[in-house]
Amino acid sequence: MIELHTWKTPNGRKASIMLEEVGLPYEVHPVDFAEKAQFSPDFLAISPNNKIPAIVDTDGPDGRLAVFESGAILTYLAEKTGRFLAPSGTHRYTALEWMHWQIGGLGPMLGQLGFFARMSKEKVPPAIERFSAEADRLLGVLERRLAASPYLGGPEYSIADIAAYPWMNGATTMMADTLGDSLKDKPATYDWLARVGERPAVKAGMLVPG
Ligand SMILES: N[C@@H](CCC(=O)N[C@@H](CS)C(=O)NCC(=O)O)C(=O)O
């Protein structure tokens, strides 16, 4: 059994999509940010950075294993099940490259833009300009990649797509006004979003926690 500690955010949904895709039995443990549950000692014991997602595998390689950071979770579940990450060769490293590109670039930059442009009461023009420019650049990188390859990691759907989908779903819906022209002329991105978004596991994972 896998315990999934998560909340209603793009990073959390990477883990729930993956668990739905691989079909392992899992139990959802909501970490309610409104109650500051991410700072509770029980949660910190499995996720020392006080961020979701985190998992606990009661049947890990050496017994009970807690894993935090979405990239580590996706890699762990891929290797445990032999799904969505090639065991070796070029496509393995291409998928890892694009997964890390999402975790280190697309996610944080969209997150900062969302904060400064949408959530912050005080509007700080240099911050909005900086993160708008970086989001625009990253969306261009994504479009070029998807124009050249059906999936981020190559010909097959992989953990790189699972990492990027919840963020791009949010970018093209909740953040569409903020991103404006940066979302224009992105046919390969929208085609990929539609193909990934119609997968039953993706639909189910995007609703976790209910
Ligand atoms: N690099 C981390 C980022 C995780 C992250 O930022 N999680 C956010 C939700 S999307 C969180 O837990 N925020 C709670 C807080 O900042 O207090 C990952 O990929 O897992």
Short description:
The protein has 210 residues and is α+β, with helices and mostly antiparallel strands. It has helices at residues 10-22, 41-46, 70-81, 90-119, 125-148, 159-172, 176-179, 187-197, 200-205, and strands spanning 2-6, 26-30, 54-60, 63-68.
Structural class: alpha+beta
Radius of gyration: 17 Å
Gross geometry:
globular
Hetero compounds? glutathione
* Helix content range: 55-70%
Number of helices: 9
Please describe the biggest sheet, giving its number of strands, its sense, and whether it closes into a barrel. 4 strands, mixed
Amino- and carboxy-terminal Cα gap: 19 Å
Query: Which strand-content bin applies to the residues?
Result: 5-15%
The tally of beta strands, per DSSP, is 4
Estimate the mean pLDDT confidence: 98
Q: Which residues sit in consecutive blocks of at least 5 with pLDDT less than 50?
A: none
Secondary-structure element pattern, one letter each: EHEHEEHHHHHHH
Taking strands numbered 1, 2, ... along the chain, how are they ordered across the largest sheet? 2-1-3-4
Polypeptide structure, described:
By secondary structure, this protein is α+β, with helices and mostly antiparallel strands. Helix content is 57%, strand content 11%. The protein has nine helices and four strands. A four-stranded mixed β-sheet has the order 2-1-3-4, with helices on one face. β3 and β4 form a beta hairpin. α4 runs parallel beside α6. It is globular and about 50 Å long. The model has no long low-confidence stretch (mean pLDDT 98). The protein binds glutathione. The site of glutathione (GSH) has 13 residues, from α1 and α3.
